[in-house]
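Final report, section 2: Outcomes. Of the targets proposed, Ribose uptake protein is the one most frequently requested by collaborating groups, and we therefore present its record in full.
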Amino acid sequence: MNATAILIGLGPLLGWGLYPTIASKIGGRPVNQILGSTIGTLIFALIFAMINGMGLPGGMDLVFSILSGVGWATAQIITFQSFTLIGSSRAMPITTAFQLLGASLWGVFALGNWPGMSAKLLGGFALILIILGAWMTVWTEEKTQEKASILKKAVLLLAVGEIGYWAYSAAPQATSINGMQAFLPQAIGMLLVAVVYSVFLGFKDKEKSAFTEVVSYKHIFSGFFFAFAALTYLISAQPDMNGLATGFILSQTSVVLATLTGIWFLGQKKTKKEMTITIIGLVLILAAAAITVMI
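The predicted structure is given below as tokens.
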């Protein structure tokens, strides 16, 4: 593993770390956020494909790549919904924890990772750390019935959204193409979901169409950040770079930047004690992620 591979692997730290904060700062409804973000991602992917002379893959490679994008966009709509409930600084550690849990369990049961009892025990310990760390990031001093109910709803939403994120990561494994070749069809799948979602909501509320709202197109800018992260992750996950496991773990360092920028720039305030416990929780999540790589 060389310095170039590590730098590329940390691309998602900036892209995915800043994406939720920028999207929240621009504002609008979840439908505005997903529509603009996916347009921005498609623009980025088209430019990348043209520069590298890449066309669309054919057959089932195209189908699975598009399904990967469909999975991400569906999950991201749910994640945006959770932002409206508990804010990005609380939602991001939870969704990161779910993704780490999902990736680890998929690796164990489907790919045969963590062979041997000692590896399984160490992996189980890492999963406990992830759950504990996620809980610590949403811990609050002021406990009320209403806040507990809202948090429970957000956690359930994010748990459902994990299915889409799992499809985003797993579907390309069924193809014979590399991540960079899958990038453009993934972006197409993302935009398809955003368009269908926007049309559906437009029929429900004829006075509000995401297609005619300026804020939707402002989110093209946030889409560039997501696309940069997705592309650097796909490159990082290549066997001759960091590999899938290490590339995935490096990408999850974005949770630190996403959480802290949400607190600092979006006014998602925490008390001194809450902030201390949040930071400890983030450290536990990252430590658990590192453990899963070393097993």
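Residues 166 and 283 are 23 Å apart (CA to CA).
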